[in-house]
């Protein structure tokens, strides 16, 4: 009997039932918002005294180390975060989690996530899903033709109420006092979130541009093939609010439409190395400018270089925990065991291609201390 050739899409497990439910949520966003409000009213006696104190946000360009930070911080007993089990019924976390608990067939065996980066997950693993809430209330949020930045000028009282209630419900579901979220797009909402939660803490991971570009290109190629082979993959990513890679790749517009058009043009013409390098520079330049021009952000934002985490994982984790105002617990020791240089692929850029990346990123990279190109080989994926 002839064996079927394993496809890239096979690594991205999207069951048919999940695809169908995801379509129901995507097709009727207003209905699910109303159901979420009904859930809130039903649970009011349980959540009325729950306060959102010092929420923690991990935000940055994809492949910067945000997932390993989420994986580690989510192990802290004081925090609650979204999990794979929350998708796609994110708008009704309490009722959906009760259903999942009743319908669960038993513990799952961990499987490597579709990113093929060695991180193994189950339905109980933390994941970035809150983007679904933002998309429900801010139409066109990922349109690269318009500025995607949200600040205090975009205040939306209906969103603020729904979002705050959603977090309160999640804290009850997870029985924890602090909210933790990973959301790459939240780098464009720092001021909005700080106005909503003045005691919030933000962690922004960054990595050297050469290896970061290599990782972005690898991930984009992998998920593009997977989505082409299995349309459910593309639908899952779109519904979950992940437009960082694949067939639905959208550049984040941080207020420079000309730069976004140029990046998109480079991607479309196959000049990916330059396109990703200029994208890296645009996003992190926006972050650097925001920190320089907004004094209130400087005290609540911690930029973490992933290379530093690799060199000194224990010390880096202690620094992160102190910034987040979390007790140290066992996470520094765990970071020493989990954070290491990757072994699943090698850098294949030519010297000219490396020079091109540095030409596109040097000015921004230097603002974050990336000035010694001779150390680029130590950067991590």
Automatic annotation (TrEMBL):
InterPro entries: P-loop_NTPase. The keyword Transferase applies. Gene3D superfamilies: P-loop containing nucleotide triphosphate hydrolases. Keywords: Transferase. GO terms for molecular function: transferase activity. This is Sulfotransferase.
């Amino acid at each position: 009997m002839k064996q079927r050739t394993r496809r890239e899409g096979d690594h991205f497990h999207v069951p048919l039932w999940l695809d169908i439910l995801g379509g129901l949520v995507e097709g009727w966003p207003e209905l699910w918002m109303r159901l979420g409000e009904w859930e809130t009213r039903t649970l009011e006696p349980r959540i009325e005294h729950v306060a959102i104190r010092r929420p923690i946000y991990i935000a940055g360009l994809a492949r910067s180390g945000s997932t390993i930070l989420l994986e580690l911080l989510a192990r802290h007993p004081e925090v609650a975060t979204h999990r794979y089990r929350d998708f796609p019924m994110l708008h009704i976390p309490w009722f959906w989690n009760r259903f999942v608990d009743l319908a669960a067939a038993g513990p799952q065996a961990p499987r490597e996530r579709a990113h093929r980066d060695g991180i193994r997950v189950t339905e109980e693993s933390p994941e970035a899903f809150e983007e679904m809430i933002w998309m429900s209330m801010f139409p066109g949020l990922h349109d690269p033709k318009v500025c995607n930045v949200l600040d205090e000028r975009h205040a939306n009282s209906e969103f603020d109420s729904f979002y705050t209630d959603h977090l309160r419900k999640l804290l009850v579901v997870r029985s924890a006092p602090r909210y933790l979220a990973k959301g790459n797009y939240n780098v464009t909402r720092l001021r909005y979130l700080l106005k909503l939660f003045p005691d919030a803490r933000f962690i922004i991971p960054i990595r050297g541009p050469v290896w970061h570009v290599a990782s972005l290109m690898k991930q984009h190629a992998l998920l593009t093939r997977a989505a082409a082979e299995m349309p459910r993959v593309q639908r899952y990513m779109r519904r979950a609010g992940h437009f960082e890679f694949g067939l639905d790749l959208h550049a984040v517009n941080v207020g420079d439409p000309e730069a976004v058009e140029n990046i998109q043009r480079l991607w479309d013409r196959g000049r990916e190395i330059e396109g990703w390098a200029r994208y890296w520079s645009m996003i992190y330049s926006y972050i650097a400018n925001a920190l320089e021009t907004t004094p209130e952000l400087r005290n609540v934002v911690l930029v973490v270089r992933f290379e530093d985490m690799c060199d000194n994982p224990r010390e880096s984790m202690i620094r992160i925990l102190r910034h987040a105002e979390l007790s140290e617990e066992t996470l520094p020791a765990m970071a020493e065991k989990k954070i290491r240089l990757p072994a699943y692929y090698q850098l294949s850029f030519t010297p000219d291609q490396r020079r091109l990346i540095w030409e596109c990123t040097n000015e921004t990279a230097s603002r974050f201390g990336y000035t010694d190109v001779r150390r680029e080989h130590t950067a991590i994926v």
